[in-house]
Amino acid sequence: METKNFEIVSSQSNIEWTGRKVTGAHNGTIAITKGSLTLSNGNLTGGKFTIDTTSINILDITDPATNAQFAGHLASDDFFSSEKFPEAFLEITNVDAKSATVYYITGNLTIKDITEPVSFEASLNASGDALTAGGKIVIDRTKYNMRFRSGNFFKDLGDTLIYNEFDLNVSITAKAVPAFA
């Protein structure tokens, strides 16, 4: 059985997020700072990575002042509490191969020191010492104490309601770690 470890190349990996509200949506990026994936006999068997919550970037708001205000709000205790919790983590706990390149992944996502299980489908392509992977994770923000304008906790929000679920579209590039002789 050949086991190969791949280190995530943070400069070539990222997460695109989308959050929705009654009147529309917002989107942006957030950085993956480090992590690894493990393959055994060419199949994904595990992994983990670290997300930098201080790197939240908003792409759809072009006015610099409004963008900075929104970024500050996402970093606040209403959402990610980035000053107190600058990192979030995803650790893969189970992998089911659906095909040679598609996997159903179960893991633990930790945001604001709160860990909740997540499941999602991901694609993975490994060739030699290079690997690319991607998947969409749908998160219920209220499970991580992000209750701002949630209809579950506040009444009569009307068109200011923010939906509880947001999407994380993860894109990873990784390079094989040389095996020790």
Describe it:
Helix content is 7%, strand content 60%. The protein is mainly beta and 181 residues long. It has one domain: Lipid/polyisoprenoid-binding, YceI-like (Lipocalin), CATH 2.40.128. Strands 1, 2, 3, 4, 5, 6, 7, 8 and 9 form a nine-stranded antiparallel sheet that branches. A hairpin with a 2-residue loop joins strand 6 (102-111) and strand 7. It is elongated, with a radius of gyration of 18 Å. The relative contact order is 0.22.
Keywords:
60% strand; elongated; Lipocalin; Lipid/polyisoprenoid-binding YceI-like domain-containing protein; 9-stranded antiparallel β-sheet; mainly beta; 1 helix
General shape: elongated
**CATH architectural name:** Beta Barrel
Total count of helical runs of at least 4 residues: 1
Percentage of residues in DSSP E strands: over 45%
CATH superfamily, please?
A: Lipid/polyisoprenoid-binding, YceI-like
Low-confidence stretches: 149-154, 157-161
Structure summary, number of beta strands: 9
**The number of domains:** 1
Q: Which range best describes the helical content: under 10%, 10-25%, 25-40%, 40-55%, 55-70% or over 70%? A: under 10%
The level 1 CATH classification is Mainly Beta
Integer average pLDDT: 85
Task: Output the radius of gyration.
Answer: 18 Å
Please name the CATH topology. Answer: Lipocalin
What's the SSE pattern? EEEEHEEEEE
**Category by helix and strand content:** mainly beta
**What distance lies between the first and last C-alpha atoms, to the nearest angstrom?**
16 Å
Taking the sheet with the most strands, its summary is: 9 strands, antiparallel
